[in-house]
Amino acid sequence: MDAAVMDTDKHHEAIMTPAEPLIMKQGTPKIVTKDVTVHYGEKQAIFPLDISIPDRAVSSFIGPSGCGKSTFLRCINRMNDTIPICRVGGKITIDGSDIYDPDLDVVQLRARVGMVFQKPNPFPKSIMENVAYGPRIHGMAQSKTDIEEIVVNSLKRAGLFEEVKDRLDAPGTGLSGGQQQRLCIARAIAVNPDVILMDEPCSALDPIATARIEELIDELRENYCIVIVTHSMQQAARVSQLTAFFHLGTLVEVGDTEAIFTNPQERRTQDYIMGRFG
Amino acid sequence: MLVLVAVLVVLAFFYGKSRGSALGTAGGKLHSLPYYHGYFVALMVAIPLLMLAVAWPAVSASFIEARALAILPADLQPADGLARDAVMRDIRLLASGVISDPDRLSAYPQGVRAAAADFAKLNWASGWLQIAVGLLVGVGAAMLASRKLSTRFRARNSVERIFLTVLIICSAVAILTTVGIVFSVIFETLRFFAKVPVTEFLFGTQWSPQTALRADQVGSSGAFGAVPLFIGTTLVMLIAMCVAGPIGLFAAIYMAEYASPRARSVAKPILEVLAGIPTVVFGFFAALSVAPLIRRWGESFGLEVASESALAAGIVMGVMIIPFMSSLSDDVINAVPQSLRDGSYAMGATRSETVKKVVLPAALPGIVSAFMLSVSRAVGETMIVVMAAGLAAHAVSWDLIETFNPLQAVTTVTVQIATLLVGDQEFESAKTLSAFALGFVLFFFTLILNMIALRVVARFKEQYD
Question: Cβ of B349 under 8 Å from any chain A Cβ?
């Protein structure tokens, strides 16, 4: 009972954290959520959650396993719709429009909000066709040359073009893990999204491939709103400008990455960052 | 005897186990846990005893029979194998003591009765001797095995080795049976080809296997051109796959991709019930319901439809194969990693786009192999075609429309095998042997199909591991 009371107290504290993150002062937030809740069947996975996510910056969600950070990430492009027992409540807006509006076409939403998964998941097709997949289903290009242009551009922006330019027809599954993940990023940016969600994009990769992806994330920051879920606090510190700490389905603390890592306001954030639990 | 084996084995187990734990408490650390010692002793007892139980009756029976025959008086000695069997039957009957009526007893010659009494005595002795020997062997084996037990004895490894041997023997039985069947089919086929040339069999267009017993009978000239059978088989198989292929595949896509868990939990068992219907039932369903329906339907279009048609058999066979095809396809579609679907949805693809462009291409090799396995089932299916497709070999000509006309009666390889071997037959005639040749062709064809299917599946697996 006492613990529960303490928990809610802390929750209120978190919401009332006085200092607004500096990063938010640079412009209007891209994604704003209000009272977002998620239930899996009877079990509540996310408790009312409010957060504002800036455009043209990297925001990272950190927290121990099962804290709800991936679940929350998957609300932003409504990937949770594919799980039958999952219910999402509250309101999420991107550029001011509600993405859970019944009139909204979820297919269009997902074209605007790309996603990169934990495990690289290239389709069992050629490298070319992997990247061309999105543009083709959305009718973004008419001619073959247009498609090729999009593919080459996307591969270049994902920093993969130089490595694969001679074998665009080779299967995407034949690339190394790091290359596959960059292929997935190229595939995501080929449909020209506004937002890119990344769900632990480096957890299946070795340190060198991880460094390469982090570099890429840093480059992409100039043009996209990027949200990344990560288990590695070092990674959050390296690539993100805004950091949000989740614990047991609640957002404990959110702030400029530097502030979170040097001067956390919350006891639980501090404990997690110091490696005392998680 | 089996009771004895069971008792001895259980005793051996506990003996071994207690010896094991005794060793453990007495001195030092055991290599294996005590119950492994128990298993070891039990197995060492069980194996010789079971061998004894299997071998004893065979050996003792032939010995006792020989004795019983030997004491028969000279005038009752059987002249040939048949007579010998008859006498032995009498002796066994008398020895079993079923006949108690003295009148009926006296109907048997004195010599036979004496032999029977001796036979019964020997049997009784043999039974007890077996138990005695069994006890001796069991206890001896237990003694031998327990002498090996020590703290350093690796009972765990020995038990592992024994189990491995048993498993290998079981799989060897399965493999050897297959090999045996294949060889017997091959040899009979070769005998058939000694009577009928291979070329006539493979390319001949006349099939009428009735070889006459006497030269003056009607239809004495047997013709063994199997082409009409191959055409009939192909035709029925094609029709069946036209039904089962698309329906099975689409049902599988619905089940795997669209159906809610509740719909799936209802639909899947129903499909499996369909798979459980005996083919005989499908057969008379085809012959009595579907064939007349097609005939009436065809007549309303002014088409001439035989009352037994390839179409009826093919359609019903297709229905029979649907669950097979759909559950195989369902498995391969489910084996496509969820991450691929997520990737596609996250790109903004709809469900059908995802199925069409990601799931099906990924599952294609598996679906192809499901199709191949279905084809080999269609080719091997017998009951439905026996009842619904007819027996008469269809005339083959270069008029392809007429030759492949699905509205006529056809006959298939399996039907002919069945009809050739139903009823009385002589094993030496070309008629009977031709069944082996047909069986060989069938076997060869399905073997190749299955091999292709397995190859494709193997390649499919490489992609995701």
Answer: yes
